[in-house]
Amino acid sequence: MEKVINCFKRRPDAVSRLICFPWAGGGSIHYARWGNVLNGSIEVFAVKLPGRESRAKEPFFQNMQQIVDEVIGALLPVLKEKPFALFGHSFGAFTSFAVADALKRLHNLEPVHIFLSGASAPYSETRIKTPKRSDLSDEDFLKWMSSIGGTPPELLANPEVLKLFLPALKADLHVVENYRCNKPDSPLLSCPVTCFDGKDDIPHDLQAWKSITSGDFTVRMLDGSHFYLKDSGNEKIILDYVTKHLETSEMDYL
Predict the structure, then answer these.
(1) Contact 97, 87 (CB under 8 A)
(2) How far apart are CA 143 and CA 38, in angstroms?
(3) Which residue of 157, 227, 242, 243 has the fewest CB atoms within a 10 Å radius of its CB?
(4) Cα–Cα distance for residue pair 108/106, rounded to 1 Å
(5) Is the distance from CB of 117 to CB of 195 less than 8 angstroms?
(6) What separation in angstroms does the CA of 153 have from each of 145, 146, 177, 180?
C-alpha cells in the first residue's frame, strides 16, 4: 500500500479515513499535509500515481481503469475496516468518482461522503464538449496552462522544471479526456455528495453530479479560479467542512 498511498500521520484509532486524489500532473504532498491539520478522528490517505514523486521511474497510466484497479487493489482491505470518504479536485474528481463507482458495483462498498472539486460531471454536455488539450504542442499547452491560472509563473518560465512537470500533466489529461461514462439511469450511490468550485474558474456543470446519488447534494462556491483550494483561507473552509461532515457521518455510522 505504501507505494500507492502517502500518509503523513498514521492514526490507527481514527474513526474514519479521507482518501484524496491528485489533480492532473499533481503529486500527493498537498493532501498528505492535511493529515497533520485534521483532527485525530480522521486519517488522510493521499493517492500517489506512477510517474511522479517516489514512483518517478514508473510509466504513466494510459487509462482510468488502470488507476481504479491499482487504487482498489491497494486499498480494498483497509476500506472494509472503517468508514471512508473521497476527495478529488479536477482530474481527481473523475478518479475519485470512478473508484467510488467500481467499489459500489464490484464490492458493494460505499463512501460516507464524496467531495468533488473543480470539474463537470464526466457525462455532462459541458464536459463532453471540452476541447482536448493533451494533444497540443508544448508551446500551446503552456499558453493554455497560463490562461487557467494556478501554475506559478516562475515554473512556466523554467524549461528544466517544465520538462519534469509537463509529461505527468499531459498523461493525466490524456486519461481524463478518454474517460467515458454514461449518465446513470438511477443513482448508484446513496451517500451525500458535495461539489466545491472556484467562482472565477471556467463554469463547470456541477449540478450534473447530482445524478450519481440519491443522498444529499450540496454545491459550495469559493473565491478564486481553478486552483482556489491552494488558498489558505479556502483550504480552512474546505477542511472545516470535511471535518464537520465526517464527524456527523461517524455518528450515523455508529
Answers:
(1) no
(2) 36
(3) 157
(4) 6
(5) yes
(6) 10, 8, 25, 33
Give the CB-side neighbour count of residue 4, counting CA atoms within 13 A.
Answer: 16
C-alpha cell at 138: 508544448
Q: Is CATH 3.40.50.1820 correct for 5-253?
A: yes
Nearest to 109 by CA among 77, 65, 74, 87: 77
pLDDT band at 254 (very low <50, low <70, confident <90, very high): very low
Grid coordinates representing 142? 503552456
Rounded CA-CA distance 24/19 in Å is: 16
Integer Cα distance of 153 and 7 in angstroms: 29
Name which of 68, 63, 86 is nearest 179 in CA terms. Answer: 63
Q: How far apart (Å, rounded) are the C-alpha atoms in residues 203 and 198? A: 9
Q: Which residues are catalytic?
A: 90, 226
Please tell me the total number of residues recorded for the chain in this structure. 254
Alpha-carbon distance of 59 to 76, in angstroms, equals 23
Is the CB of residue 68 less than 8 Å from the CB of residue 56? no
Question: Dihedral of the CA atoms 205, 207, 209, 214 (nearest 10)?
Answer: -170
Taking only the tens place, the pLDDT of each residue in 115-169 is 999 999 999 999 998 888 888 888 888 888 777 766 767 777 787 777 778 899 9
Q: Which residues does 105 contact at the CB level (< 8 Å), separation at least 6?
A: 188
Q: What is the 3-state secondary structure (H, E, C) of 27-85?
A: CCHHHHCHHHHCCCCEEEEEECCCCCHHHCCCCCCCCHHHHHHHHHHHHHHHHCCCCEE
| Alpha helix ranges (H) inside the chain | 29-32, 34-37, 64-79, 91-107, 125-128, 138-148, 153-156, 159-177, 232-253
How many other CB atoms sit within 10 Å of the CB of residue 39?
Answer: 11
